[in-house]
Amino acid sequence: MSNASGPTARPFPELPAGFRLGAATAAYQIEGAHDQDGRGPSIWDTFSHTPGRTLGGATGDTACDHYHRYREDIGLLRELGVDDYRFSIAWPRLLPEGTGPVNAKGLDFYDRLIDELLAAGVAPTVTLYHWDLPQALETPSDSGSAAGGGWRVRETAEAFAEYAALAAERFGDRVERWITLNEPYCSAFVGHAEGRHAPGAEEGRGALAAAHHLLVAHGLAVRALRAAGAREIGITLNLDRLHAATDGPEDQAALRRAEVLHNEVWTEPLLSGRYPAHEDETWAGLAAGPWRLPGDLELIGAPLDFLGVNFYRPVTVTAAPHRAADPELRTAVDIGVTEVDPYGTRHTTMGWPVVPEALTELLCGLHARHPRLPPIWITENGSAETDTVAPDGRVHDTARIDYLTDHLAAVSAAVTAGVDVRGYYVWSLLDNFEWARGYGQRFGIVHVDYDTLTRTPKDSYHWYRGLITAHHARTEETTP
Ligand code: GBH
């Protein structure tokens, strides 16, 4: 396609007819209104309000105030012309205690959101869990009925299935795609072993139990969603395209350990119905832990309609001594691996190297390794940049336009090579609360001024709009 694509004047990447384009967000990162209309607290409220946990003590109390400004934000989506919008439901808005009494005002909010999206011609893709576990499931309140323990206990997976059933019964007639979990790797390991995400724990066993219970939660939710007649069901993983720093045996062994921890702990049970075989005690522990019950792997490995993949950057690893003194932690994330950065290329403000071909390689690798691979959706891809509103009132984020152009071309190359990729969502519609990094990282194609909450579409927004228009025109030409 030869269309000039705006500020960088590079051609738009060619995508197959019918390929769907969208944008993504997550509840805690944009909604705010953390204590309004009956929403219960989540582990991210607790974590962000704990001193020292997030950059500058940032919280999601207000965030982008999307809870009150969703009509304006849907207007931005309509103007943009996206096919799909991926957002997450805040579990503690529907069920303030995680289980038990339902909050009608929470259901009403997502009803209105979904109806307005449909009126704007945008299909909803709903993530059920983007990290905001109801606090009552982590530590029970005096009045609460939950047992506590969070993802370390099986009851949380059972509560998740009830929540999934509630959401599917209420919204299933209007939701196109359901994503059970976003990046369970982060929930299990960043949250329970590294402690950099909520609930901020540094436990080996706890992290392994959480990993298993998250997978069980996924399996139970798939069953509940199917029973409620949900349309398409999948899960979103942050899979890594990994390299070893050298060909030496130690780095190659480190690479294998990282492949297991970052990718195979998730892809093997989900796509092959088994835990990865590895000599390392970690994975033996995960597979044989007391948390595993007969039938779990069949449940976890039930067929999916799609696999969501979030991709930002490749990772290169080298062998390193264990960092943790605690031997229990060594059986979880501290696997004797450290990241190095040999990438002589541009880096985003996250410090992440920009290497688009790594996305093609990741997708082709998945396709080659998994005979049962369902269709893939890129459910997040994007770039954090230093975006400021220029004197002309615009945000000239040409580096982001380059990033998105190159990664869409990388997806297109994977499709050409035979990988079944159905859609691509930009992370993110809005600048938002970037977890432990607070408001210091801007991923949006729309700028948010956190003092006034003014939204300013960046140049990348206008570029994406042009790309979507051109893609739709081309799809109409090729499909009678
Ligand atoms: C995704 O995570 C998330 O789904 C999304 O919510 C997020 O906004 C987006 O990517 C961009 O990061 O805070 O310094 O401890 C991607 C994987 C894992 C990247 C956790 C940041 C924490 C680094 N993320 N990691 S730090």
Give an overview of the whole structure.
- This protein is an alpha/beta fold.
- It contains 16 helices and 13 strands.
- It has helices at residues 27-30, 43-48, 66-80, 91-94, 104-119, 135-138, 154-171, 184-194, 204-227, 249-272, 281-288, 296-300, 327-330, 357-369, 398-416, 459-478, and strands spanning 20-24, 84-88, 123-129, 177-182, 232-237, 242-244, 306-310, 315-319, 337-340, 376-380, 421-427, 446-448, 455-457.
- The strands form three sheets. Strands 1-2-3-4-5-7-10-11 form an eight-stranded parallel beta barrel. A three-stranded mixed sheet has the order 6-8-9, covered by helices on one side. Strands 12-13 form a two-stranded antiparallel sheet.
- Helix 7 runs parallel beside helix 9 (204-227), helix 9 packs across helix 11 and helix 14 (357-369) runs parallel beside helix 15.
- It is globular.
- Bound molecules: ligand GBH.
- Ligand GBH binds next to helix 8.
- The site of ligand GBH has 16 residues, from helix 8.
Ions and ligands? ligand GBH
Average pLDDT:
94
The count of β-strands is 13
**Sheet bearing the most strands, described?**
8 strands, parallel, barrel
Helix-and-strand structural type: alpha/beta
What is the overall silhouette? globular
Low-confidence stretches: 1-5
Into which percentage range does the β-strand content fall?
5-15%
Major beta sheet, strand line-up: 1-2-3-4-5-7-10-11
The radius of gyration over CA amounts to 21 Å
Helicity, as a percent range: 40-55%
Please state the oligomeric state of the protein chains shown.
single chain
Number of continuous helical runs: 16
Instruction: Note the gap between the termini.
Output: 19 Å
What string, H for helix and E for strand, traces the elements in order? Answer: EHHHEHHEHHEHHEEHHHEEHEHEHEEEH
